[in-house]
Design a protein that fits this description.
Arc Repressor Mutant, subunit A; 324 residues; alpha+beta; 3 domains; 15 strands
């Protein structure tokens, strides 16, 4: 299900709402033993949907699927969308002809009532905004940090836990922003980086702050496998900034969910200066980090709009030290 949710966020954006625990008590036991369910709300659509993923591989039986659609809607009052990890082209065509909503992650999504039928071969036209998409920012940082001169989606997918279709979109965005250019065609197409200094100068204008949410704790959570970030990382990696009393860490939403909620406190309830800030990133900082610290470019994206002049001086010194 995680792969499907990631795919949907790539299609509809990070504002898609999910609630995979909503249906734990909604369906009879025999259905819970057959399927995994997850509620979703698509931005701009007032309807409710429920993803229905078979726990075991099943044959495509149209009559049975239609019957199950009615049952699922009756229990949840949400339109079911079946999730199939593996489908042949003929099976996908049968589902489309019978107007059965389905998703095959990284291959096709079909939701007939909102006229969505996107396949891997289609190019979704979009105007790129003032900031990178999540996958484009991760790709941009990865290419810069590793001084990669040329690559393609299969190579990147073998090195980082994103799919080939995700990297294809990210690489296309970087080409559109004139940070990459292409050579060759079809399966021989390669993406090549422009001059590294120019790539940094142009690309840093599109970096977004990766911090999505902030949590607070009154005792150290470093043993949870978090990455040192923010002002703490800047002070420790540089030389001109005093290490702050407050410690900053970065992690993912999945890691946040795994931490006992009793460990977090309300910011306004803190009565001591000895507390810790846990920053939830929009992407996994571990994708790009080679140490206990967030990578230098994500750190820059975190702090580039900070008004503290001392911090900006320290940031520029650190970037210069890292040849950026």
């Amino acid at each position: 299900m995680d792969n499907t949710l990631t795919y949907l966020k790539e299609i509809f954006g990070i504002n898609i709402k999910t609630e995979c625990g909503k249906f734990y008590n909604a369906f009879p036991m025999y259905m819970m033993e057959r399927y995994k369910f997850c509620f979703i709300k698509i931005p701009g659509d007032d309807k409710s949907y429920v993803l229905v993923e078979p726990l075991k591989r099943q044959d495509i039986n149209i009559n049975q699927l239609k019957k199950q659609m009615k049952q699922i809607y009756g229990y949840s009052e949400s339109m079911p969308i079946f999730v199939f990890e593996s489908l042949r082209l003929s099976q996908r065509n049968i589902l489309v002809r019978n107007q059965i909503p389905f998703i095959q992650p990284d291959n096709q999504i079909y939701i007939p009532n909102i006229a969505i039928n996107l396949s891997q071969k289609e190019i979704i036209q979009k105007d790129y905004g003032n900031e990178f998409s999540i996958a484009a920012q991760v790709t941009y940082i990865y290419l810069l940090l590793n001084d990669i001169k040329e690559t393609n989606a299969p190579r990147l997918a073998a090195e980082m836990p994103y799919s080939k279709i995700t990297f294809n979109r990210a690489l296309s965005e970087l080409v559109s922003r004139k940070l990459l250019y292409t050579e060759g065609k079809a399966t021989r197409k390669m993406y090549k980086t422009i001059d590294r200094d120019e790539m940094w100068k142009k690309g840093k204008e599109f970096l977004f702050n990766p911090v999505e949410k902030v949590f607070y704790a009154t005792y150290d959570l470093s043993h949870e496998g978090l990455y040192i970030s923010g002002e703490t990382a800047l002070a420790r990696l540089g030389v001109s900034l005093t290490v702050p009393d407050t410690f900053f860490y970065a992690t993912t939403s999945e890691k946040i969910k795994s931490i006992d909620k009793k460990r977090f406190v309300n910011k306004y309830d803190i009565v001591t200066e000895d507390y810790f800030v846990i920053e939830q990133f929009k992407y996994d900082p571990g994708f790009l980090s080679t140490s206990h610290y967030v990578d230098i470019i994500s750190l820059y994206a975190q702090l580039k709009d900070n008004d503290d002049e001392r911090m900006q001086i320290a940031l520029e010194e650190l970037l210069e030290e890292k040849n950026l």
